[in-house]
């Protein structure tokens, strides 16, 4: 399952991403916001989406959006089991490596820096890329998980 969430800056693109996921016949749930509110607070939507990912962190994914995507990535990464990667433009290798090396299960996008065409390309790449399960990368993720479990 893919979960979508944003703040006001990403609201319109979030809705467009939902349409795009429908076209791709992918299961998704829009966690919100469901109406535009210029005063909304991104943690109110991002954290619930991240919690849904954390229920099945190897199966579920989320795509979250904000003006820069930075606050959204920070909020999502506070949830145990979530590995959010930030993208707001630049080399697409960042997207590939977020999956191959880090097994990122949340993609945080900077809505003010990306066009919908770029977002579609990035989402396709992110969803199509698998974690390598290479020993060194798995070992590093296990260390992060062990730290999370201490809290």
TrEMBL record:
It comes from the Bacteria. It holds the Pfam family LacAB_rpiB. The keyword Isomerase applies. Gene3D superfamilies: Sugar-phosphate isomerase, RpiB/LacA/LacB (3.40.1400.10). GO terms for biological process: D-allose catabolic process; pentose-phosphate shunt, non-oxidative branch. The keyword Isomerase applies. One of its GO terms (molecular function) is ribose-5-phosphate isomerase activity. Keywords: Isomerase. D-ribulose 5-phosphate binds at residues 7-8, 67-71, 102, 112, 136, 140. Belongs to the LacAB/RpiB family. This is Ribose-5-phosphate isomerase.
